[in-house]
Amino acid sequence: VMQCSASLDVLFLLDGSYSIGKGSFEKSKHFAAKLCDAFDIHPDRVRVGMIQFSSTPHLEFPLDSYPTKQEVKERIKRTVFRGGSTETGRALKYILQKGFPGGRNSSVPEVLIIISDGKSQGSTAVPALQVKERHITVFAVGIKFPRWEELHVLASEPPERHLLFAGDAEDAANGLYSTLSDPVCTATAPGCKVESHPCERRTLETVKEQAGSYVCWKGSKQPNAVQASLCPFIRWKRVLIKHPSRCFRTVCPDPCDSQPCQNGGTCVSEGLDRYHCICLLGYGGDIHCAAKLSLECSVDLLFLMDSSAGVTLEGFLRFKAFLKRFLQAMVGQDSPVSVGVAQYDDGVKIPIELGQHKDTFSLMKSIDALNFSGGRTLTGRALQYIAQHGFRSSPVFADVQDELPRVVVLLTDSKSQDSVAEAAKYMKDQNLFLIGIGSSFMRAELATVTGSPQQTIVYSDPQDLFNRMPELQRKICSVGNPEGCQAQSLDLAFAVDASSGVGLENFLHLRHFVRSSCLHFIIDRDVTQIALVTYGSRAHTMFSLDTHTSNSAVLQAIDQVPFLGDSASAGSALLHVFSDVMTVQKGARPGVNKVVVLLTSGAGMQDAAAPAQQLRHNGILVFVVVIGDTERDTLLRVAGSPNYLVHISSYAELHYYQGLIIERICEEARSPVNLCKPNPCMNQGVCILGPGSYRCECHGWEGPHCDTRVLRGDSPRSPALPPRSPVQWSPRGLQHFSRALQHSKRQ
Asked: Which residue, 161, 367, 589, 747, shows the most beta carbons closer than 10 Å to its own?
């Protein structure tokens, strides 16, 4: 809400009659207090007073009573409902006689804000005209279900710029500022402009309708005779009547439009020209989320380096260089991290004990002194030894329990010559967190050793290893904290196979997987929105993107999702997601990456390739998770790429792949986004990109998203307005619009 800082006298005229009622009077007070946020209240700038009227007007407080915004709002809050008939004309005559009590006698612009349902007991036309002839700007604000015709009479010209609705306080405050911005208030902020858009005024009217006929008796011309006849049966009915109108609002560029936050950070606006970035773990070196080269988490960190013949001398030296560069960058003088280094081949040595070095210089000298040994690759034995001896406390403190998380980083580039499964299980039982680093051909063994692909870092070439330093930093500091996408904005939909081919028991596995996956995201209107669709032969939306705004609400809703149990059609599910989930009307936000995760048994995939391609064409990633045996070619056509396909042999193993799936989703969330995909324009509107924004070109429709049909024929329309309003929208501005649009549709 922008602020008016001019010299201005503002008088609120609040309807306190019985037709308003106490409940709506409280809403009027809330609205008046909210409008005060748009004024710079000060004795030399904006002064505010209030009159309550019903049968008679009553001065609540004059304009010179309260010099600050907080005092005015507190006094409005204490105003008591009086009750009585609605004598609006008498209240206007009171103002004509007394002026603005405590005001500056018309030496500054005067603004009268009438908040009423417009159901006056007498005529208001003459006193309203006389008030406006005194050059008082009159805003008429409808409350409850107002009589807009009377409010039109009260409001200054043009009425569409002076009629407001108290039901949406922030929008009305913007509307009031938009009208006063030129010439009364200070100039509009740079880049902001007043624009029009179609809007609706609604009210309840009591109308008479014939409900039918009944037999009645009437007299006749013959003496002592009556005759039967049909008489109409009339009843009174309250109907909602809509009045199409146009509203004028100030639209400003969002400071986040330029996407200033780097490395997947989320930009949060602070007014018209300021913002701050919420950064991912491992970033935050400056306000724009540059890589933050320090380990701020408190852990006991032990590096276990492969020194066997399989890794070669060149590979060993590469690991040493990586270790030196990582520790130089990440571990400073005041770092809470305790570091140790071990190396292995046939045996295991711990040349640098945990916490042995307190300064970086001596630590680097000790790493330089490490020598290549070149024996067999016995990774299993090394892990077992480290679990038993790597984190021993010194004898003095043997009775003190070390509560810090214990992290082992395994650096290897050679397949183990002994079994690693038992050792990996033993490490997990000892509450050690293991991260595996190796080249791409080590991917499968590292996943086995660590127990999860999420705990592995795989590099494609020697230089790529050094590029993975921020990733290692995040994984070390995410011990005990699911990493997820955290601060990254994302619209995420799960499409879950609930067919008989899955079965009830396995469906519960899938449901639990979705539930635990949601724990990795911050569910919020401005960060991550989640939708859930289940399908058999038909798809059903369990909840839409904008249904739930907190993690607890989403988790509770997932627990209620039922099993369907008929045949499967993944194609119908993806088509449903495209047409009925990932849309602006259902809460999807332009400017935010979108991902669909399809969880399927592999049945019913034959019809899924075309709708999956349609989703991708509209900028929505399709991630396919298949449990069981299915033809890979079919799956690839649906996923579009092996990178977005995860094939799991059994439902029991699903949770092992959760970290990998979430990591891939988050990679997508950090990628650049096209504001026009999916198309935010409704009714065949064409989306046209601009710098940091877009606009909708409409045909037969109008509004920011082509959401209002163009009025034809004799329908009222302002001749000064163009047939279309090509309003430009920023991603953040549109998020608020799409939520308002969805709310109005539900109403």
From this structure: 589
